[in-house]
Amino acid sequence: MAQISQVSADVQIKCGAEKFYGFFRKNMFQLAQMFPKNLHACEFLEGNDFTTGALMQWSYDIVGPAKVKAKVDDVDEQNKSITYEAVEGDILSHYNFFRAKFQASPNGESGSATVKWTIEFEKADENIPTPEAYLDFVSKLSLGLDAYLATN
């Protein structure tokens, strides 16, 4: 029986946790315009808000052109976190299970925050690499979004 593994990264950002989390809740579709090299499209297929069970489709290029359908697995307003789980698409040819979560947490009174990204996965076979490329991408996306939010 295969085992679910995880990789994670903490990204320090200057904008507050609420502002970062709020962008994902209200303006996430702008990410395709902000990062057109990697994110090509994002849309809701079922539901039209970040509520548990909503279904989204992403077209992206992180380790090659791909599409994924992902359900919103959990939205936690209090802890400022959103969890997505792949339910269909190219990524599931490499991983039997793939779930990504971010949580934005304030850093004391400085107004800054830490964004923790966690990817849980189960490889389709032992030759598949860990999803470090996805973790690197969301870390860079967090820093780019932080720079954008600092000016808006």
TrEMBL record:
SMART domains for the chain: Bet_v_1
GO biological process terms, semicolon-separated: defense response
Coiled coil: none
Source taxon at top rank: Eukaryota
CDD domains per the UniProt record, alphabetical: Bet_v1-like (cd07816)
Bet v I/Major latex protein domain location: 2-152
InterPro entries given in the database record: Bet_v_I/MLP, MLP-like, START-like_dom_sf
Sequence similarity: Belongs to the MLP family.
Name of the molecule in the record: Major latex protein
Organism: Cucumis sativus
